[in-house]
Amino acid sequence: MEAEKYLATKERLSLAVNGENELKTIVTDITKVLSAHNLDLQPETAFDVMVFTLETLHLERFKVSEYVQ
Q1: What is the 3-state secondary structure (H, E, C) of the chain?
Q2: In this predicted model, what pLDDT tens digit does every residue of 21-64 receive, in sequence order?
Q3: What φ, ψ does residue 17 adopt, rounded to 5°?
Q4: What pLDDT, on a 0 to 100 scale, did the predictor assign at position 55?
Q5: How many domains does the chain have?
Q6: Nearest to 12 by CA among 1, 3, 26, 23
Q7: pTM for this one?
């Protein structure tokens, strides 16, 4: 992890979610969920679960069942 990249990402995300306090809240909430499932100790699996979750959220916006037989 590069400090400059981390700080730039933090600034970009803070703007995207309406402030640094909101970003801190989001990070805290996600950290609690990861810890509850012991994923905080498995970074690769945690990443895969987060990606899968985001993909699931996006797929649910489409009625996939209409296209799959």
Answers
A1: CCHHHHHHHHHHHHHHCCCHHHHHHHHHHHHHHHHHCCHHHCHHHHHHHHHHHHHHHHHHHCCHHHCCC
A2: 999 999 999 999 999 999 999 999 999 999 999 999 998 888 76
A3: -110, 20
A4: 94
A5: 1
A6: 23
A7: 0.78
What are the tokens at 9? 């990402």
Q: What tokens does 2 get? A: 């590069």
CA 65 to chain centre: 26
Query: Which structural domain, as residue segments, surrounds residue 36?
Result: 3-66
Shortest CA distance to 20 belongs to which of 33, 7, 4?
7
Distances (CA, A) of 59 to 46, 51, 53, 54, 62: 20, 12, 10, 9, 5
